[in-house]
Amino acid sequence: MTTRPTPPPGEFLYLLAGDEDDFTNACADLLPVDIAESLNDLPVEAAVKVAARLPFHIAVEVFDEPSLERRDELVELLPDEVAIPLIQAMSADQQVRLFRSLKEADRARLLHVLDAPTRDQLRLLMSYPPQSAGGLMTTEFVSVPESWNARQVRQYISQVGDAKETVYAIYVLAEKTQKLLRVLSLREVVIADPETLVMEIGEGRKPISTRPFTDREEVARIISKYNLLAIPVLDDGGHVLGIVTVDDVIDALISEQTEDVQKMGGMEALDEPYMQIALGSMVKKRAGWLCALFLGEMLTATAMGHFEHEIEKAVVLAVFLPLIISSGGNSGSQATSLIIRAMALKEVTLIDWWRVAAREFPAGLALGTILGVIGFLRIALWQSLGLYDYGAHHWLVGLTVGISLIGVVLFGSLAGSMLPFVLRRIGFDPASASAPFVATLVDVTGLIIYFSVALMILRPGG
Amino acid sequence: MTTRPTPPPGEFLYLLAGDEDDFTNACADLLPVDIAESLNDLPVEAAVKVAARLPFHIAVEVFDEPSLERRDELVELLPDEVAIPLIQAMSADQQVRLFRSLKEADRARLLHVLDAPTRDQLRLLMSYPPQSAGGLMTTEFVSVPESWNARQVRQYISQVGDAKETVYAIYVLAEKTQKLLRVLSLREVVIADPETLVMEIGEGRKPISTRPFTDREEVARIISKYNLLAIPVLDDGGHVLGIVTVDDVIDALISEQTEDVQKMGGMEALDEPYMQIALGSMVKKRAGWLCALFLGEMLTATAMGHFEHEIEKAVVLAVFLPLIISSGGNSGSQATSLIIRAMALKEVTLIDWWRVAAREFPAGLALGTILGVIGFLRIALWQSLGLYDYGAHHWLVGLTVGISLIGVVLFGSLAGSMLPFVLRRIGFDPASASAPFVATLVDVTGLIIYFSVALMILRPGG
Fold this sequence. Notes:
Number of strands of chain A: 5
Shape of chain A: elongated
Helix content of chain A: 55-70%
Radius of gyration of chain A: 31 Å
Largest interface: A-B, 127 and 127 residues
CATH architecture of the largest domain in chain A: Orthogonal Bundle
Order of helices and strands of chain A: HHHHHHHHHHHEHEEHHEEHHHHHHHH
Distance between the termini of chain A: 72 Å
CATH superfamily of the largest domain in chain A: SLC41 divalent cation transporters, integral membrane domain
Strand content of chain A: 5-15%
CATH class of the largest domain in chain A: Mainly Alpha
Strand order of the largest sheet of chain A: 1-2-3
Number of domains of chain A: 3
Number of helices of chain A: 22
Structural class of chain A: mainly alpha
Oligomer: homodimer
């Protein structure tokens, strides 16, 4: 009972062979999202055949599902007499997503055959960036004039409710200017006395709204803060361009976070499910960052070259090198992920950089001291237990490792926490400050710190 | 207009000095969430004074805000004659959150003075884990008997609507058994003809529901898949225990993802905003993992010890060590973050491990070959340009580096992609497979691969 199982993909092919009524009945029992997922599992040619036989009102709901994959291919393969009414009936936000994914030629051709109002609206919506409020919004919302009363609104909704993306938020517009005056919830309208004027309903607060170019993450933050079911998108004059609904925001939140996790793993966002993306595209998306990191990390070879002479004199130094530079990377990665998340949640903004640095300095010092003491004790213990011989100067080796760890962890924490600020300042996504990126930054510095400490402590040569 | 600015915290203190009416008027103009955020910025003693003077219906809304911090302290400091009616009036899910955060003694005392139905309900809800559907749900939902018609439902909602968490989903129960038969949306009820029986309204599909012990991530996935505004939580007998609403799910999604990002950064989840957590607690939460990783990374020192002799003979090998082991860590971190996210989105489940391995093998081989070729060319170029002298066997050094990179990147991709499966299999959160964790795993293996290749190629000694 928890969730409904998706019907096996074969079922549709089987039903196609049966008569029209069987097929229609089977469809009526399924939710559009489940039909969409079954279509995803079919080869595209079979999916087109099924889509073409779906009753029209169900086909519209299926094509309105964000989870329907290859929507562009399906539309291209469907005969125009099926495809065009289907597109016209889709909701505006899903039309936009479809048209964005169509090939240039198909887009032009299909735009041309749509009716004029749909076409104009589509052109307007496509002019906004896909990850902005304008790119997410739909234009099917319920608006009523300020002179109406609750009874009129209820009557109106019972007539037009089916065609609107949501009826749970009702937008009251000024009669002359068409500016947004008030937002009512359907709950308030249902509870109100039938003769109450809309301007008297509810608490009469100024509506919470957003602008078309606001980023989808910010829209999600406002919707979640104020527990809204939809937010109006206003132009400079205060007119409602469209609304963004809570379900689009959840989808946006989930894709935003997939992107962030992948960026934090040190790669481009895949934009496709892992099991579905072609191997070649995946390697391409991973190779870019991997090569960039590799080239950055080559600096360690250059730096090491300068210390070759010291390593020759005290090979024991090389033994602790991976341990020390990785500790810098790890502390940097902790600091970075903390700050990236705090930035995403707006707990921290650009101007807070020095407050963050003021926290990371003592934190890094404390963490470095803990690791430094453990590192020193490890060397002392192994030496005294006879597990390994670090040579005549083993106390000095221990001291070098301990002091280097303090320096490296402190530097890692500071560099890791400041990197997201630098990235945001120069216009990049702070989530690109991946653990591998931080580690690469910190590795070179880490080994310079280590060998410099060694030179000071072990001079004149171990 | 975009969002409302939070009033400066001082404003409330100023208003406290003014007369009662001024204060009440100022509050009426603000949204509860904004009042809550202003209270967060005040010292707790001042916040209590303001809270005690808020008109009762506003105070209830403010205390119902998940973003109100120190709710436990405020309730403890408020006089009981204010606190108790306030708690009684809060919504059930927020009461649970409040009681979970109260000190043991206060919890027992306050439970004792609440009225019996509230107390029993609270005890039931607190028996579910906080991150489950049962822990998130509220018991204030609209249920109607199967014999009613649309008019009766509309009338009922206009009477009780104010007291319910949401009225947008209406639950139709069987008259005798009280089992859930149908879920209607308020939209369907408003659109329906007044005399239509509730069982005739809508499309009559089986309701989508969840169980009390289902994890909040799974609840979020169902709500997002089916675009629900609320989901009923059913017991074994099919009775509605409560409902989880979409706004709670958004909050849950956001905290779940904060946890994941922090775990992926190689640390425990902070559970508090970065700028607010005490420095000591933060160091404690970071030190645990950092020390664990440090101890794991100590294996590199042990492994290096075994190769000290080889390094002595060819110090040039040490020069490329950081480059090679970091490449393994980077490719592992990419693979891990891809799989963690694919698992969170249910694109990949436990049984898919071999399908993932079958993708990561060629991907890792391709990526390793790309880096191997770059590494070899780098050495050849530096040598021929006279930038660095890698000794008489420089071609063999180049070959060693190139071949090791293929092995290390391949191993990194495989290990990184399999780690989340292993963690989930043994009952841990796959998001704990942080980039630092993977890097630590891969570093030891990476250097063993590197020195083994060197031994084969450069034998009998460089």
